[in-house]
């Protein structure tokens, strides 16, 4: 039987236009722009200077603290500038700009497609390679993987859940990765199992990915302890808490983490990056990106070097069309609007979407009719219309009572609202205020 979470959820049209399109290499742009903060936590500390020659895999910035991650060059070339550059949402970020001269890899990196299955014996060596490679959660949160795969004292890991759900419309990067790099992902899961000291790994895939399910199910038969679980196609099935509930039936309590209920969740792309880091000593310098949208001339799944400008990829699918009303980094629900087409692909960029005005959702807002649809849709069991009522009046006195900090920012409430109230924006405001209240306390 297919699995799903028990509360809320919606069923938007999937628009998986790139599902049957094989991954192709995007090629190299003239310049790459590599931010030193592509992860949760502290920005990495720059270790190169203007004029330095680098190769693909050369360290550009070292992790600065426990919650941080190193950043590497994705190409060979010359560091031409270290400056504050405008990112995808208009914020300025410390960025290393490299003029691309080639594709030479740093010594010791295996850039071949050969599958290696013999996992190193030492867990210390495995962790060292993951840490040095700058692996972070590639599903969007960007939490450093070495921390997430370290079980805190007093806790016990029981399940590793490999998140292959990819429930956002249009995005197909993980789907294609599971189809084309299935064995590497399975080996990556075994590597993380070894770090966690467990034998059980579940690869969760939703039912609208039949080819990935077939390939993964067939290959996992050769690997003890790794199994596939098919989940219902429902948004936001890929949320950590929702996926844990679907697979294990366990609920992550308020203000707690997955490890508190014995679970570790890792995105399929992250697990593949772990495989490459441990088995090939390859840093996280590229990822799969879906470039698509209802306003796009065509769709593609590209293997993209970190730092590649968005416009370079958009031009490869025919450029910005007349129908294009908005460009999104990520998915249409949890992604962000792009204000700068020179903004680079980072470790967290799963997609670049060209959306029409119809899908951009810019319909006029009307009065709330208190229909309760947002309550029914919320996978966290919250009351978004009530949170919004207080937030729009800048009255945050009831925010803690309404548990606004438990919002996972999935956007289901805003999608389902017949009044087109920007409920997600109000929930984000309230969540930020709740964090301030907790900090004061």
**What is the strand tally?**
17
- Structure class: alpha/beta
Query: Strands across the major sheet, in which order?
Result: 1-14-13-17-15-16
Compressed to H and E, one letter per element, the order equals EEEEEEEEHHEHHEHEHEHEEHEEEHHHHH
Q: How many angstroms separate the termini?
A: 45 Å
Mean pLDDT: 94
Gyration radius over CA? 21 Å
Q: Low-confidence runs (pLDDT<50, min 5 residues)?
A: none
Largest sheet properties: 6 strands, mixed
The dominant shape is globular
Roughly what percent helix?
Answer: 25-40%
Structural overview:
- The termini are far apart.
- With 441 residues, the chain is of the alpha/beta class.
- Helix 3 runs parallel beside helix 5 and helix 4 crosses helix 7.
- The model has no long low-confidence stretch (mean pLDDT 94).
- The strands form four sheets. A six-stranded mixed beta sheet has the order 1-14-13-17-15-16, with helices on both faces. A four-stranded antiparallel beta sheet has the order 2-8-7-4, with no helix packed on it. The chain has a four-stranded parallel beta sheet with strand order 11-10-9-12, sandwiched between helices.
- It is built from 13 helices and 17 strands.
Key features of this structure:
alpha/beta, 4-stranded antiparallel beta sheet, 6-stranded mixed beta sheet
Tell me the layout of helices and strands:
Layout: E1 23-25, E2 31-35, E3 45-46, E4 53-54, E5 59-62, E6 71-72, E7 76-86, E8 92-102, H1 123-132, H2 145-148, E9 159-164, H3 173-180, H4 182-196, E10 201-206, H5 210-220, E11 226-231, H6 240-248, E12 263-267, H7 268-280, E13 286-292, E14 300-305, H8 310-316, E15 326-329, E16 336-337, E17 351-355, H9 357-360, H10 373-377, H11 384-391, H12 412-416, H13 423-440
Parallel strand pairs: 1-14, 9-10, 9-12, 10-11, 13-17
Antiparallel strand pairs: 2-8, 3-5, 4-7, 5-6, 7-8, 13-14, 15-16, 15-17
Helix pairs in contact: 3-5, 4-7, 11-13
């Amino acid at each position: 039987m297919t699995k799903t979470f028990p509360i809320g959820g919606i069923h938007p049209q999937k628009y998986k236009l790139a599902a049957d399109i094989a991954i192709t290499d995007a090629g190299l742009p003239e310049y790459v722009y590599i931010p030193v903060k592509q992860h949760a936590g502290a920005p990495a500390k720059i270790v190169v200077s203007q004029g330095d020659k680098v190769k693909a895999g050369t360290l550009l910035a070292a992790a600065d603290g426990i919650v941080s991650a190193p950043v590497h060059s994705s190409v060979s070339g010359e560091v031409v500038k270290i400056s504050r550059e405008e990112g995808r949402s208009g914020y300025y970020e410390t960025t290393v700009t490299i003029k691309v001269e080639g594709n030479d890899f740093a010594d010791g990196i295996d850039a071949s497609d050969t599958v290696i299955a013999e996992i190193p014996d030492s867990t210390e060596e495995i962790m060292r390679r993951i840490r040095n490679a700058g692996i972070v959660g590639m599903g969007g949160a960007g939490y450093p993987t070495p921390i997430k795969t370290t079980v805190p004292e007093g806790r016990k890991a029981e399940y590793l859940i490999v998140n292959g759900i990819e429930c956002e419309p249009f995005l197909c990067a993980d789907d294609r990765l599971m189809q084309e790099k299935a064995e590497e992902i399975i080996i990556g899961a075994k590597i993380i199992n070894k770090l966690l000291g467990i034998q059980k790994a579940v690869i969760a895939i939703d039912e609208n990915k039949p080819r990935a399910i077939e390939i993964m199910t067939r290959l996992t038969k050769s690997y003890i302890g790794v199994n596939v679980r098919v989940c219902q196609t429902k948004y936001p099935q890929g949320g950590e808490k929702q996926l844990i509930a679907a697979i294990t039936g366990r609920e992550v309590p308020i203000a707690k983490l997955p490890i508190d209920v014995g679970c570790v969740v890792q995105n399929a792309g992250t697990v593949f990056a772990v495989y490459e880091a441990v088995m090939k000593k390859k840093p996280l310098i590229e990822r799969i990106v879906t470039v698509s949208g209802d306003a796009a001339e065509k769709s593609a799944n590209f293997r993209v070097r970190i730092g590649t400008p968005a416009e370079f990829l958009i031009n490869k699918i025919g450029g910005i069309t007349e129908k294009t009303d908005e460009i999104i980094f990520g998915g249409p629900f949890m992604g962000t609007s792009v204000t700068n087409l020179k903004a680079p692909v980072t470790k967290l960029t799963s997609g670049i979407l060209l959306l029409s005005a119809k899908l951009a959702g810019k319909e006029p807002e009307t009065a709330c009719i208190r229909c309760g649809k947002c309550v029914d849709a919320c996978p966290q069991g919250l009351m978004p219309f009530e949170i919004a009522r207080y937030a729009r009046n800048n009255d945050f006195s009831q925010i803690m009572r309404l548990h606004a900090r438990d919002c996972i920012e999935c956007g289901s409430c805003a999608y389902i609202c017949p009044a087109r109230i920007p409920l997600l924006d109000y929930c984000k405001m309230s969540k930020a205020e709740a964090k301030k209240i907790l900090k004061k306390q």
